[in-house]
């Protein structure tokens, strides 16, 4: 070995950058191991490629990345059998980090949020220097494939580095980190094993952790999503599904494909077979994992929209740098194209599977409410999502889609009718349905938490408007009623006027309706305003009543007929009770529950005494 040691200065600006890397990124310093392993794996891939034209560059049979902690010496060694570096390579690659833009890096680092800072390492090409976050001295011994000589680069990260001739029996690179006093955790094999599995579990290069001369494999070494589907068994798919999503069931759907052309990526995605234990409504982000060249980058790239957040799996591409900041994730055109392609592929799969009504039922019951969010969140995909939606209905016992509803519409029916409530069971018996059932008009029954919002966003389906049956202005007179036309008793007009006067501060109107059969009263929303369910939500949110409702009365009902025959002076007291009855029927409480209870008790007592 030569005793001549060459000393080189990084330069003032580079010294500033090293200081930033070491101190500004300190809180997320585990990232250093990912960077070193990624560099080692890349070097081995480059040697494998070079071996295609040069036999001298062939990888040895036991080629792998080896990570060796030494507690006694307080060192952590990362070695590989990759392409290696010459003296010139070491000087250029490790001694000239300013070529990636030191000033730009410093400015971006100062401006970035704490959680974004680790991503800037890879963005500005200074991944190797993350080693100084855990080490106070680093040495790199490397021998270029095809060369006989080796060189050692060394630095304490204080502004200078050394180069000296060295020895290495085989081509490749060995990095020795002399760890800081507070970096003991990186001497523990269990900690190193965890980090490898977190960041590099699926890269194809084998990774081993070495302790006491024994090697333990630390990564699976097989990126399942990169293999042809014909080579993967159902059991392997299920095992990967359970590992990537911490699931215990079988996937309902498995999507595995590779996109090629201007945009290249591999994807392996799963739709779970059951709801997660954590309510999916509480989690508003997609957690599909983004890999770049098999290396895990993040599960916060939002590769799918929130309305597909139940989908799990991996998307792997080579069209992105190994590390990208959150700002880059939002603005990189390549990732935007990947998002569109992946979203389209998942939606296409759901559309195809929706044709199997029985098989689709389980999925819909698990994730239908989440998918509906796409109607009001995603204008671009709204028309594609709508045909996949499924509903309960007043006309059929099974789930039905909008296309099936349209096919069953009566002659002359111009709108798709729906009714929204919090209670699915209460919907089936709602008085709101009476007039529609009486005329053979189908109504979709909606009871999910999102159902008050999306119909207005969709507005129309197959050129048919969607109409809530609680909104005013619905005219059913063109459809024949089995119960006959609503002919009011004498005095009905005076009764309506008296009720309207008594409830002037609580309803916007009182009118006779032909859409009730067995009930005396029903509420509806004013024409042009939100329907009753939206009004309820507005009240609960403290955002006003959303408009006063309309009280509709059934002139054929015995109670209304009896009230029409009473003196007008008795109407005001009865008017409040009618309004409370209508509120209860729609799932609301009486205006004054105690007073309403007394009215009912008095009525029951009068019934017994009569």
TrEMBL record:
Matching PROSITE patterns: HSP90
| Location (main, coarse) | cytoplasm
Segments carrying the region annotation (A) are: 1-326
Checking InterPro entries in the record gives:
HATPase_C_sf, HATPase_dom, Heat_shock_protein_90_CS, HSP90_C, Hsp90_fam, Hsp90_N, Ribosomal_Su5_D2-typ_SF
Task: Give yes or no: UniProt keyword Nucleotide-binding.
Answer: yes
Output the superkingdom of the source species: Bacteria
Q: Do you know which Gene3D superfamilies this protein is assigned to?
A: 3.30.230.80, 3.40.50.11260, Heat shock protein 90, C-terminal domain, Histidine kinase-like ATPase, C-terminal domain
Question: Per its UniProt record, what Pfam families does this chain match?
Answer: HATPase_c_3, HSP90
Q: Where is the Histidine kinase/HSP90-like ATPase domain?
A: 28-183
Similarity remark = Belongs to the heat shock protein 90 family.
Name of the protein in its database record: Chaperone protein HtpG
Q: Which organism is it from?
A: Methylobacterium trifolii
Which gene name belongs to this protein?
htpG
């Amino acid at each position: 070995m030569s005793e001549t040691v060459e000393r080189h200065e990084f330069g003032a600006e580079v010294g500033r950058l090293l200081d930033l890397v070491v101190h500004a990124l300190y809180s997320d310093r585990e990232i250093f191991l990912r960077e070193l392993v990624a560099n080692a794996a890349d070097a081995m891939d480059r040697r494998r490629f070079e071996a295609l034209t040069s036999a001298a560059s062939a990888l040895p049979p036991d080629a792998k990345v080896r990570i060796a902690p030494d507690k006694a010496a307080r060192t952590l060694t990362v070695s590989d059998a990759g392409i290696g570096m010459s003296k010139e390579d070491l000087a250029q690659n490790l001694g000239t980090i300013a070529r990636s833009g030191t000033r730009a890096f410093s400015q971006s680092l100062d401006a970035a949020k704490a959680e974004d800072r680790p991503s800037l390492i890879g963005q500005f090409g200074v991944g190797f220097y993350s080693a100084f976050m855990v080490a106070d001295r680093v040495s790199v011994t490397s021998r270029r494939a095809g060369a006989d000589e080796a060189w050692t680069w060394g630095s304490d990260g204080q502004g200078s580095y050394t180069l000296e001739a060295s020895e290495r029996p085989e081509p490749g690179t060995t990095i020795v980190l002399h760890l800081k006093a507070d970096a003991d955790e990186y001497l523990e094999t269990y900690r190193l094993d965890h980090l490898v599995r977190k960041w590099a579990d699926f890269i194809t290069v084998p990774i081993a952790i070495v302790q006491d001369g024994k090697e333990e494999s630390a990564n699976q070494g097989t990126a399942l999503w990169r293999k042809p589907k014909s080579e993967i068994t159902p059991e392997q798919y299920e095992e990967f599904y359970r590992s990537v999503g911490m699931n215990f069931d079988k996937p309902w759907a498995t999507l595995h494909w590779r996109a090629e052309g201007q945009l290249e990526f591999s994807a392996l995605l799963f739709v779970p077979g059951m709801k997660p234990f954590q309510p999916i409504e509480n989690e508003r982000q997609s957690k599909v994992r983004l890999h770049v060249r098999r290396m895990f980058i993040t599960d916060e790239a939002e590769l799918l929209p929130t309305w597909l957040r139940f989908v799990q799996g991996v998307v792997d591409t080579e069209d992105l740098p190994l590390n990208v900041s959150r700002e880059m994730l939002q603005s990189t055109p390549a990732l935007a194209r990947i998002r569109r392609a992946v979203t389209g592929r998942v939606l296409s799969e759901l559309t195809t599977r929706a044709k199997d009504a029985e098989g689709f039922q389980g999925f819909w019951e698990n994730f239908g409410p989440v998918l509906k969010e796409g109607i009001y969140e995603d204008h671009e995909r709204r028309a594609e999502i709508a045909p996949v939606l499924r509903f309960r209905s007043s006309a059929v016992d099974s789930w039905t889609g909008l296309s099936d509803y349209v096919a069953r519409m009566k002659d002359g029916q111009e709108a798709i009718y729906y009714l929204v409530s919090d209670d699915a069971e209460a919907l089936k018996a709602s008085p709101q349905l009476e007039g529609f059932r009486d005329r053979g008009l189908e109504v979709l029954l909606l009871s999910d938490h999102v159902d008050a919002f999306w119909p207005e966003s969709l507005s129309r389906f197959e050129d048919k408007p969607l109409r809530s049956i609680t909104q005013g202005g619905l005219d059913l007179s063109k459809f024949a009623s089995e119960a006959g036309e609503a002919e009011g008793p004498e005095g009905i007009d005076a009764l309506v006027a008296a009720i309207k006067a008594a409830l002037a501060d609580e309803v916007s109107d009182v009118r006779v309706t032909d859409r009730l059969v067995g009930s005396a009263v029903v509420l509806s929303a004013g024409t042009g305003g939100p329907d009753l369910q939206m009004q309820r939500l507005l009240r609960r949110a403290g955002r006003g009543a959303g408009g006063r409702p309309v009280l509709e009365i059934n002139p054929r009902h015995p109670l209304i007929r009896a009230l029409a025959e009473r003196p007008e002076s008795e109407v005001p007291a009865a008017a409040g009770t009618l309004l409370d009855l209508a509120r209860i029927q729609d799932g609301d409480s009486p205006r004054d529950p105690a007073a309403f209870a007394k009215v009912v008790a008095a009525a029951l007592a009068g019934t017994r005494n009569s």
